[in-house]
Write a structure and sequence with these properties.
By secondary structure, the chain is mainly α. Helices cover 66% and strands 0% of the residues. The chain is globular and about 50 Å long.
Length: 240
């Protein structure tokens, strides 16, 4: 007795164990023999790309249409860091074989490493600017959320590096792998927190008086990005 095409679909692709939150098994998975460079546009990732590039372009355009000052580097570096961290998520999500995961994790680590460096540079610039002008530190909602986000990014990166490259820090490889799902969960929480921080930035005096980036524009871009990222989450990778 022959099986229908729908029954054979997942086994043929070898992706039956990779079911995304939305869609069928294999819908958001890297195909065997297909390059990892296509991962950032598989499935709903196209929406994520549209959203994150719109958000980044909105920030950069708003900065560059005004005279550049030292502080201009703060939103430029932060938005670049967020763009890179989003790409790091999108390129790793579809991987499911050992070889794909190894390659995806290496690229994920590199992109996030550059992202964290950009964010730290953005933090240094804003703190130098505050200090040189006698401004108050970490008083606004944006500043408080920003500090939490910076710390979260650094801790997330350090734990990710330790889990993958130095698993003996967790006792053994099995213990380190058992922690992967928590690293993934916290990564998605961090993405949402980051977007909240960007939204809060629209309410700062600098934005209201200079950049004039609209809150609604930021929220629309962020929602589009999340609509593209979240459905690609693999249930099994979160232990669900």
């Amino acid at each position: 007795m022959s099986s229908g095409p729908e029954e054979n679909r997942a086994p043929q692709q070898g992706l039956a164990e990779d079911e995304p939150l939305l869609g069928r098994a294999g819908d958001a998975s890297q195909q065997e023999g297909r390059g990892i460079e296509f991962n950032p546009v598989i499935g709903t990732a196209v929406l994520a790309q549209a959203g994150i590039w719109i958000l980044t372009a909105t920030v950069w355009a708003s900065v560059f249409i005004h005279p550049l000052i030292l502080f201009s580097a703060h939103p430029l570096l932060n938005s670049a860091g967020i763009l890179l961290s989003t790409q790091a998520i999108l390129i790793l999500q579809p991987t499911h074989t050992a070889k794909q995961k190894e390659q995806g994790t290496s690229i994920h680590a590199i992109l996030n490493g550059i992202s964290v460096l950009a964010l730290i540079a953005g933090l240094i610039i804003v703190e130098y600017n505050k200090t040189s002008h006698g401004g108050e530190h970490f008083r606004s909602p944006h500043a408080i959320l920003g500090l939490i986000t910076y710390v979260f990014f650094i801790v997330q990166a350090l734990i990710g590096i330790a889990q993958y490259y130095f698993p003996t820090m967790f006792g053994n490889v099995s213990n380190a792998k058992a922690m992967y799902k928590y690293h993934r969960m916290s990564g998605y929480v961090l993405l949402v927190l980051t977007f909240a921080t960007v939204a809060a930035a629209t309410q700062t005096d600098y934005n209201k008086n200079v950049l004039n980036i609209q809150l609604w524009a930021v929220l629309v871009a962020e929602v589009i990005t999340l609509v593209g990222v979240l459905p690609r989450i693999k249930k099994q990778k979160l232990g669900m």
